[in-house]
User: Which sequence fits this backbone?
């Protein structure tokens, strides 16, 4: 079956996106719609987790979302974040984002290269801090494994949650291909379209955990990224379309 329409479960990209190049080159329609979104917890819910922000001397940030929700809750709880706070950020980009909330200079800020495990040397360098990890309701096993292996005092605080967006205005059967990037996105498909039958609809997934979620949901995975031949989702989709058209 020739692919004529694709729904990507992400926000619309900028004008230079490879998706738009594919749409133009292959003469197909590509729509974008986030299947999930983030909602913050309130101070009352945080207190039920027995979290006292004043008890921590260090904070571990894995995302910009985590930064925004930490400072939102600090303000809501009238907690003045001390200048002495140590910040450990997963990447330089996340560390730079701190400037939205604090005066960056003269603060104790460190960051890793890219992955969470890259932070291990930093935890060994600063082992005496009592760390708080602002996180979503879904925590990667790699994060817990790295922190436990670092032998530091750390506490997880669920400050925001990933929830399914309302997609009931979408005619899901109008699309020849659906593209997913997270297990939560796959779950949102099931929540919004309980009677969805895949039939000839192609399913594209990014990453092994998303693939497993699709398989667990009874879906057939037709396009998988990343791979050696197709390191990006757009490359994998374009390759599939061209092979299908032969």
Assistant:
């Amino acid at each position: 079956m020739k692919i004529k329409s694709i729904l990507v479960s992400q926000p619309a990209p900028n004008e230079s996106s490879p998706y738009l190049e594919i749409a133009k080159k292959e003469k197909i329609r590509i729509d974008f719609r986030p299947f999930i979104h983030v909602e913050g917890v309130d101070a009352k819910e945080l207190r039920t987790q027995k979290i006292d922000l004043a008890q921590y001397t260090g904070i571990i940030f894995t995302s910009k979302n985590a930064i925004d929700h930490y400072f939102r809750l600090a303000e809501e709880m009238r907690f003045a974040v001390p200048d002495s706070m140590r910040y450990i950020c997963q990447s330089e980009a996340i560390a730079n984002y701190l400037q939205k909330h604090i005066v960056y200079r003269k603060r104790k800020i460190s960051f890793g290269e890219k992955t969470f495990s890259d932070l291990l040397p930093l935890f060994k360098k600063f082992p005496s801090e009592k760390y708080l990890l602002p996180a979503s309701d879904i925590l990667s096993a790699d994060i817990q494994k790295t922190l436990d292996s670092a032998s530091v005092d750390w506490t997880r605080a669920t400050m925001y949650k990933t929830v399914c967006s309302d997609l009931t205005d979408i005619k899901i059967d109008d699309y020849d291909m659906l593209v997913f990037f997270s297990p939560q996105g796959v779950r949102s498909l099931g929540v919004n379209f309980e009677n969805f039958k895949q039939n000839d609809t192609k399913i594209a997934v990014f990453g092994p955990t998303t693939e497993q979620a699709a398989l667990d949901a009874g879906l057939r995975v037709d396009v998988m990224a990343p791979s050696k031949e197709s390191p990006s989702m757009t490359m994998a989709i374009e390759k599939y379309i061209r092979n299908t058209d032969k």
Observations:
- Residues 43 and 76 are 7 Å apart (CA to CA).
- The chain has nine helices and eleven strands.
